[in-house]
Amino acid sequence: MSSFVSASPSGDRPDERHAWAVHDAHRPNPPKITAEEGRPPSDAIVLFDGTAESVAKHWRDASGGPSKWTVKDGLFICTPRSGGAFTREEFGACQLHLEWLSPVGDPGLGNSGAILMSCYEVQILNSDFTDLTYKDRRRANYADGQAGAIYGQSPPLVNPARPTGVWQTYDIIFHPPLWDGDQLIDP
After folding, report:
1. DSSP secondary structure of 133-161
2. Are residues 78 and 100 part of one domain?
């Protein structure tokens, strides 16, 4: 989970293998649900415990230097235009417990992501909405760009987002694809 990727907003076009284009505004939204609050697993490697010391120990910037994000009131806060925060330790298959907050009044809807293995971005975004019309969906984002989506690849199965200003929790179980040379073995 220690890298940054970007995606083109135009994306791929539908074809015989893909029913929807990347970020297709006509793609149906997942159903809205109410999720229970989560807690980290008992055997978790805690990468942030509310202290600057945990940031120094576990986090870096893209070049390997200290993270430019700040700690304030026990929160790990993105410094605007500072780039991503990357874990010092590299992970493959993992269970990731992530707690995040989309700030009230943020015109960007708290747009961010947790990127796994430099390839798969789990979208972080204020997506607390239901039954939007096509016109409204531009404001709320496309199905494969909502909270919980694998950005630009797959929408979440459901929309568990809470309102802006309320803590959100992800518990992600990640199994990377397995390759033998150029041959995909699993999934």
Report:
1. -HHHHHHH--GGGSTTSBTTTB--SSB-P
2. no
